[in-house]
Structure formats: structure tokens, C-alpha cells
Amino acid sequence: MKVFHSNSELDFWSANLSKDTLSIGFVPTMGALHLGHLKLIERACLENDYVVCSIYVNPTQFNNSEDLAKYPRDLEKDLKLLSKFPNLVVYHPSDKDIYPTDDFKEPPKIDLKGLEKVMEGANRPGHFEGVTTVVKRLFEIVRPQKAYFGLKDYQQYLIVKRLADSYFPEIEIIANEIIRSEKGLALSSRNEQLSNSGLIQAARLNNYLRQVVSMSRNYSIHSALEKIIGEIELDSNISLEYLTIADAETLSDYNQLKSKAGMVFIAAWVENIRLIDNMRL
Ligand code: PAF
After folding, report:
1. Is the CB of 112 under 6 A from ligand 1?
2. What distance in Å separates the CA atoms of residue 266 and residue 73, rounded to the nearest whole number?
3. CATH number for the domain running over 189-280
4. Is there a catalytic annotation at residue 37?
5. Which helix (H) or strand (E) holds 13?
6. CA 276 to CA 242: how far, in whole Å?
């Protein structure tokens, strides 16, 4: 494993690679790595000659400065977890490497077809502008053939696919299934901030999603949703931001007759930590 703390180190390494014969996979992260990240990296290592894993807590995608300040960071622990991957390059850039001037913070101009307007987009103003800005910048710096994203951030995955279609058609965007704890909690760097009882309470988000999915087989999806929203509102440990269904491709309104596939999405707060999860109907 190699660790680079600047663009110049990464550029020097990649200039010496023969890009015609060697493939580069890319796993962008904000650190505080967990098994979900390790599965992405494991897959990327199998499918590419080299894998770059970026660790960069991107300030432009946080709409809340308190959230940014308390986002978990532990580079030493992350590097220990990554040390078992021999063909891995860890890229840990500074803010100046990513945003040398304010012009670099300008979001890319892409028509996201409304994907950015719902759920995380509606509840975290500016979030997807920040994500597309940093991912575009990272793709330009790393220039991978394949990039890997986890499906817990399903909306992000669809948006990154559109970004790649517009700016980087040569990069294949690959999605990995959500990795869950034994109790069903979707793994997330934010889970580190939960207490043991918080982890148990947070695992109920997954139960609520499963209940919507199973009820939707016998009832109209809207009454299933209404019933489960009512239950969550009675759950004193969970503060619901949204529980909603959407078309899996467009994220527009799910229509049981017209949509090819639907998904249910949740965002909620447990112990003041914001968590998201989703499931196919
Ligand atoms: O999913 C994340 O961890 C981040 O949004 C990403 C893609 C690394 C961009 O900062």
C-alpha cells in the first residue's frame, strides 16, 4: 500500500504507470472506514491492477457546519484497515489540492433531471452541488477506468452516474450492495457516533423499511407508508425526516402501474446523528 498526501505525489506515481496496459479503479471516501468501504475496495482490487482510495472530508457537501465539525476522522485507523491491500494507493489530499482557488468550488453544470430535487437534495440544500463538485474534481485528478459507490447513498449513486455520463463517459460507475450489521443497520461512518443503545435504536430503521416492503404486497403502498410513518412517530428514539417511495430510476413519484421498480427511502435522526437507508420494493 502507498499513501500520498498531495496531488504531486499522486501525479508522479501515475505518470510512471503504463495506462494502456494497467487499469485503475477508484473508491472515493470521506474516511472513518467500515466494512462497506472495505467490500468496495476488495471488489475494486479484484477488478483492477491498481486501486486509488481517496480519503477526503469534503466541506462543500455539508450544509451544516456542526455536522462537518463532528464528522469522524481517524486516518491512522483507516490506514491500518487498508494496509492489507497490496495494490492500493491511498490518496489523502489537502483542501488546497482539491480546491486550489474558489473557482474550483463551482458546481459542474449538468441537468440532473430532478434527481437532485427530492429527499437528500430537498433536505440538505447544496449537498449534491458539493458532491458533484468534489467527485468531478477527484475523477479529473485520479482518472480511473472504474469508480465504485455504495448503494446506501442510492441518490448519490444515480447523480454520480449522470455526472459521469456528461463529463466522463469513459469511467464505468459500479455500485455495491448495502452492507448491514447483524441487526440490519446499514453500515455508515456516522454509526461510529452512536452509543450501544443508539445502535440498537438505529437498527429499527431497517425494520421499518422491511415492514413497508412486506405490507406493500397486500395493501396499497401509500397506506403501508402512512401506517409505518405513524409507528415511527410514536418511536421516541427516532426523529423521522422522511419515509418515502420513489421510482428507482428517476426518483420521481412511484406509480405502482407505471414504474418498473420502486424503492423506499428513509432519513431519520438517532441520538442527534442523521442516518439514511433504502430498500427495493
Ligand atoms: O459517499 C461519500 O463518502 C462522499 O459523498 C464522496 C462520494 C466520497 C464524496 O465526498
Report:
1. no
2. 25
3. 3.30.1300.10
4. yes
5. helix 7-15
6. 9
The answer to whether 246 touches 252, Cβ cutoff 8 Å, is yes
Question: What is the Cα–Cα distance from 202 to 178, expressed in whole angstroms?
Answer: 15
Instruction: Select the CATH number that applies to the domain covering 2-176 from these four: 3.40.50.2300, 3.40.605.10, 3.40.50.620, 2.60.40.1180.
Output: 3.40.50.620
Nearest alpha carbon, ligand 1 atom 8: 29
Is 0.90 topped by the overall pTM?
yes
Written as one letter, the residue type at 215 is: M
Domain ranges of the chain: 2-176, 189-280
Residue whose CA is closest, atom 3 of ligand 1?
29
pLDDT for 255 equals 79
Per-residue pLDDT, 21: 82
Residue tagged active-site, from 37, 92, 127, 222: 37
Distances (CA, A) of 267 to 64, 152, 246, 254: 16, 11, 14, 18
Average pLDDT, the chain: 96
Query: With a 6 A CB cut-off, is 201 part of the ligand 1 pocket?
Result: no
Determine the pLDDT at residue 16: 86
Please list the alpha-helical segments (H only) found in 175-248.
196-202, 204-215, 221-234
Count of other CB atoms within 10 angstroms of residue 5? 14
Considering only residues 218 and 146, tell me which one the structure prediction assigns the higher pLDDT: 146
Pick the residue whose CA is nearest to atom 5 on ligand 1.
131
CA distance 84 to 38: 10
Q: Above 80 in pLDDT, residue 19? A: no
User: From CA 154, how far away is CA 248, in angstroms rounded?
Assistant: 9
